[in-house]
Amino acid sequence: MDTCLRALVATIETLRAAVPPGNRVLSVYLHPSLRRSTARAHLRFVRARCRQIRARLAPPDRETLDRALAQLERYLAEAPPVGQPGLAIFAAEDSDYFYAVPLPERTGEQVAWSERPLLGPMQRILEDYERIAIVVADRAWARLYTVFLGVIEQQVLLQAPQPRRLGPPRLHPALSRRRPDPAAEQAKQIVRALLELLQRRSFDRLLLAGECEVVKQIQQRLPRPLRERYTRNLELDPRASDVEVLRAVLRTAGEWAQEHQVALVRRLVDAALRQSPSLDQRAVLGIPATLSALEAGRVRHLLVAHRMRMADAVCLACGRLAASDRPCPAHPGATVTLPDLRGRLIDRAARQGVRVDLVVGEAAVLLEARGGVGGWFAA
Questions:
Q1: Quick one: pLDDT at residue 324?
Q2: Could you give the number of structural domains in the chain?
Q3: Which of 27, 138, 243, 318 lies 20 to 30 Å from 44, alpha-carbon distance?
Q4: Which of 1-5, 12-16, 127-131 has the lowest mean pLDDT?
């Protein structure tokens, strides 16, 4: 998943920088399927929308749209996409400008013809993933990193401000000017750099590490936007390598993820047991109930214990997933047992655009005690 997301980030950056030939680009968002008939349905959908757009264009612009559409038609005819919940395609009149981007989540199907590519749906997919900023500093140097999707995204190196040269001391000690504190001066510079970084590329959490006095001075000077994002200090030597910094950040992020998963499973179990009508969403637990909700298309967030093996069944006639003790109601004789249902269940959920979280550690133990699988669905 991280590889797919990093590719998505890289494509967004490329599309932002690239100028489409003719200053027009066709942006299309689709839901792929294993069936080739779905690719033909997608093609009919895109052609119908393009006919509506074309009717409003002047003749030269119509030709530009036709050439962009021809690129997309060739792609869907020759290499229909499979295996991903969503797909974004961007095409212009020149064959050098064509991007087909697999998406890890479904977006609304849409077609747009505009001066710039429609990137909003792809950007919203990334909003669930945190960007972390970390400062590693001493009195002489500071390094500012952002970490996103498991890799160092960027790094800023700061040298401490040079102390101002003061004149000779006054005759009376009380009249002598106070020499600036190097730790305080360094902290001020780091806070300014963090605010600039926050404006250029917003981050969700802030970590501090390095020399204790500098870290303390930074904490005291954090303005509200940074104070709201400050999470904790890390035990890191100011001379730690980039690899050591990244490992410390990922280890800390893993702890946050574990805490979040435990809280998520507990909330799911509590909601499933209470089923309070006041809740705006309901929960389901266990293989039979979760499969029924999934087959009905009601699940919107699925939780699965990471190492749980599910020996259940599938209907050979219609492909319906089922618990082994509850065969397909339409074709009881066509139901066969599967050695492991988990992969099929996750794949089915992904094709419906359902968010899937594999929970591990303590969260997995809590979920396994309730059947190993569950989910949220609309009431």
A1: 58
A2: 3
A3: 318
A4: 1-5
Closest CA to 356 of 364, 348, 366, 367: 348
Mean of pLDDT values over 218-237 = 94
CA distance 130 to 111: 29
Of 247, 263, 231, which Cα lies nearest the Cα of 357?
263
Percent of the chain with pLDDT over 70: 80
| pLDDT averaged over every residue in the chain | 83
The answer to whether 167 and 19 have CB atoms below 8 angstroms apart is no
CATH of the domain at 157: 3.30.420.60
What is the full DSSP assignment across 142-158? EEEEEEETTEEEEEEEE
Please, are residues 106 and 46 in contact by the beta-carbon 8 Å criterion?
A: no
> What is the pLDDT at residue 279?
45
Q: Are residues 119 and 18 in the same domain?
A: yes
Residue 29: partners with Cβ closer than 8 Å, 6 or more residues away: 86, 87, 88, 89, 103, 107, 108, 109, 110, 111, 118, 121
Structural domain span for residue 158: 131-163+182-240
Same domain for 192 and 272: no
Residue 171 falls inside a structural domain:
no
Is pLDDT larger for residue 201 or for residue 128?
201
Q: What is the average pLDDT across 88-108? A: 88
In terms of domains, do 223 and 312 share one? no
* Residue 249 within any structural domain of the chain: no
- Looking at the structure, tell me whether residues 100 and 204 fall in a common domain: no
- Are 276 and 236 contained in the same domain? no
In the three-class reduction of DSSP (H, G, I as helix; E, B as strand; rest coil), residue 112 is classed as strand
Instruction: Supply the CATH number for residue 78's domain.
Output: 3.30.960.10
Would the CA dihedral through 104, 108, 114, 116 be positive or negative? negative
Residue range 316-342, pLDDT digits in tens: 566 666 665 566 777 766 666 665 667
Which of residues 99, 126, 153 is at a domain's end? Answer: 126
Confidence of residue 171 (pLDDT cuts 50, 70, 90): low
Contact indicator for 316, 291 with CB cutoff of 8 Å: no
